Amino acid sequence: MYPLQTLHTFGFPVHAANVQLVTSLQDIQQNWQEIKRQHHYILGEGSNTVFLENFLGSIYKIAIKGISLRETDQDFILKVGAGENWHQLVEWCLSQGIAGFENLALIPGTVGAAPIQNIGAYGVEVEQFITSIEYLCLASGTIKTIAHADCEFAYRDSVFKQALAGQIVIGYVTFRLCKNWVANANYAELRELPKPTAQDIFNKVVQVRQLKLPDPRKVGNAGSFFKNPIIDKALFEYLQQRYPSLPSYPIDSQKVKVPAAWFIDTLGFKGRSVGGVQCHVSQPLVLTNNGMGNGDELLRLARQIKQAVKEHFLIELENEVQLVSNTGLIRV
Description:
Elements: E1 2-3, E2 15-22, H1 25-29, H2 32-37, E3 40-43, E4 49-51, E5 55-62, E6 67-71, E7 75-81, H3 86-95, H4 113-117, E8 120-121, E9 124-125, E10 130-137, E11 143-147, E12 168-178, H5 198-212, E13 220-224, E14 230-232, H6 233-242, E15 249-250, E16 255-257, H7 260-266, E17 273-274, E18 277-279, E19 286-289, H8 295-313, E20 322-324, E21 329-330
Parallel strand pairs: 2-5, 3-5, 4-20
Antiparallel strand pairs: 1-2, 6-7, 7-12, 8-9, 10-11, 10-12, 13-19, 14-16, 15-16, 17-18, 18-19, 20-21
């Protein structure tokens, strides 16, 4: 059995039957028939994954590296290995005079995980830069390319979490960043910046995230545990009558995004613990492991939160974090 404690940022002391490092899609391609028959999990840096208990199959840790850059008159085109660290890519781009990713600074994880989750922050989602993704299909053992239009990107979602979940291994992501950069600084604390450069935005995002979120190197966590729910306008108006201070972010004429943290905080979960797992004392959207927690305690606390939010606000929270049981993914 192989220890997984250091392979996921929640840090539960669990094990897997086997762990293999993947440095190319060909590593997977050589054994694709065996892999597809067994319980397996494709892992990046483990920042959005929690192993709740011992995993009975094989873990394939993606370490495909490399950044290639070409230019057109209008754009920078980047092809990046799935195992590259996301935040380091953002830093590298800025060092090369390439702007666009700065709002997504300090988001943990790998480049290959970014499109699966459609990572986003401060008014920007990664899908707006993605042109195509190269992956290995576990059903056929062939390497394919999927275009942006077929990725079914949505809020913290994609085809890779739906129809293709568990069916592929991402090897490379190709991005297009426009040379005619325009600052996106209309969200939250970024509004404070007068005529910001890309570096200004990067610095502010890093500063705010470091202040708001616990460092997983010091306190076990996987970032935001629940997605911010998107609800019908009718339900939002009903809730707003009862809770005038409820924040909101209109999606369109029929849908409104509301912050899960507000509901959790309003219900008094901030600082509440179940065993060694706690709802963070200052950021209620983050659940933490004090070093002595386990998967059962995490599920108990998460389910308490989910049930209370549904009872009081008629909203069904959905976990953003990937929760892995002994044979595969589960939901709260």
